[in-house]
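Input record (one chain):
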Amino acid sequence: MDDRGQIAMDFLLGVSLVLIAIGFTVQFVPGIFISGFAGEEKLGYAAYRTSCILTEDPGWWSNSTSSRTDWEAHSSNVQRIGLAADDDVNSRLTETPNMLSKEKLIKFKQLSELNETEFIRKLGLFDSVKGTQMNYGYNISFLMDGKPVVMDNHTMVIGSSLLPGQNMAKMTRIVLLETGNISVFDGRSMSSYAGNENMANIRIIGPVTENVTIQITNFNISGSNAAFINASLNGSVLLPSSNYTVQTRPLYRNFGSYINSSPLVNNDSLRIDLNSSLFFSNTSYQLRLNFNDVFFPQGSISSSYEDNIEKRYEPALLIVEVW
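The corresponding structure, as predicted from the sequence alone:
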């Protein structure tokens, strides 16, 4: 018998083919997926970065002598586009992230329409591939109640639409969007109209450029049928729906349409939104809000709309899509 150890040729050939197949798989198969994963990762990063810049950064502008965050007033020198409201224009940080400025948002929309190339560069919506700038496709939208926000006749949807079959990364953030001004009154300290303790008297100086929104809290309820009746301006009764809308908010709940059949209670808030067209003249208007079973203290001076103005913020969605 021959006791020498030898490998059969068919076995050797089989092992060789298996090793070649494994080597081919290791080298080729990852290449099928790596480029796609890398691309999706870059898209996700771009969408996340853009959403952070817009909501957490006030942006800034600069020239040879100055640098501040009120870039909406110096858009020709803007260096970075951010929408966060900012009280200190000399700092590049904000104490109110996710609270977005109305003025910045309007200018943001205008810049996207005037010079898209510069808009993309300032917002960083591009990548460099072998030294060549490749712009991302994008869509940035602001929604309230599922509908695009409209400000000063600008629909707040920026960018284009995704084509079928394209990879896309999406980032959604909840923000507080400045939608205008609101004047908030404490019902316990509002002035009543002479001779009628159930009628609040508010002075408004015209003209105004946006709707006049008044919110009353802390009612002095004087009966079981407390309710808002109507509003009048300079003695003329206004028409609901066409001249103004009314909403109410029970404690710890959201604002909803006002229903007369539901009596007001002390902790309710009432919001009245009056059309700006009512206040077209350069004059002083007397707004009177008539209630039932609600007491307002007597005062010789009308409550002033201008003395209580603050910015009004409402919840909205920012959606950033990048492809």
